[in-house]
Amino acid sequence: TTTTTTTTKNNMSVSITRKYPRCIATISAGFEKGDFLVREEKGQRVYFDFFEEAFNYIAAKGYSRMAKAEEGEWMDLMESVHASVKGGMKYNTGRLLMVLHKPLIPQRGDEYDNGPRYGEEPEMGDAAMLPMP
């Protein structure tokens, strides 16, 4: 599915087209366990003493920084979500520094990689039939 979001920045309309679902990750600052926190898929949190370590860790997992306008949208959204929690957030959310993303497209060898790639024919036995629509 393709979704299109339109944003206005400096009186200029920017159309962002997303062709694939994706995962986001964030780097935040201001924690006791480490100065920087990376939050990524499946709720995993990893603390680092230096920003470079945090960035290299998440970049090695295939994440890249979002375009500035889109990153700003995500930051605004997260701020709004955190502010909507009655009585405040249970945990320290820190100061959000960066939002990163990666496509959610299975790569060969991933644990959820069990089907054909786009443009590939599925493997079917001699007697297999195509599913009914």
SSE layout:
Blueprint lengths: L2 E7 L2 E7 L3 E8 L6 E4 L5 E4 L2 H10 L3 E2 L2 H16 L11 E9 L30
Antiparallel strand pairs: 1-2, 3-4, 3-7, 4-5, 6-7
- Global mean pLDDT: 75
Strand content: 25-35%
- Which sheet architecture does the biggest sheet show? 5 strands, antiparallel
End-to-end span in angstroms?
Answer: 18 Å
The SS-based structural class is alpha+beta
- Tally the beta strands: 7
Low-pLDDT parts are: 1-18
Q: Order of strands across the biggest sheet?
A: 5-4-3-7-6
What's the assembly state of these chains? single chain
- Structure annotation, total helices: 2
One letter per element, helices H and strands E, the order comes to EEEEEHEHE
What Rg do the Cα atoms give?
19 Å
Helix content: 10-25%
Shape call: globular
Can you offer a commentary on this structure?
There is one protein chain. By secondary structure, this protein is an alpha+beta fold. The chain is built from two helices and seven strands. The chain has helices at residues 51-60, 68-83; strands spanning 3-9, 12-18, 22-29, 36-39, 45-48, 64-65, 95-103. A five-stranded antiparallel β-sheet has the order 5-4-3-7-6, sandwiched between helices. Strands 1-2 form a two-stranded antiparallel ribbon. Strand 3 (22-29) and strand 4 (36-39) form a beta hairpin. The longest helix is centred in the middle third of the chain and has 16 residues, at 68-83. The protein is globular. The two termini are 18 Å apart. Mean pLDDT is 75; it is low at 1-18.
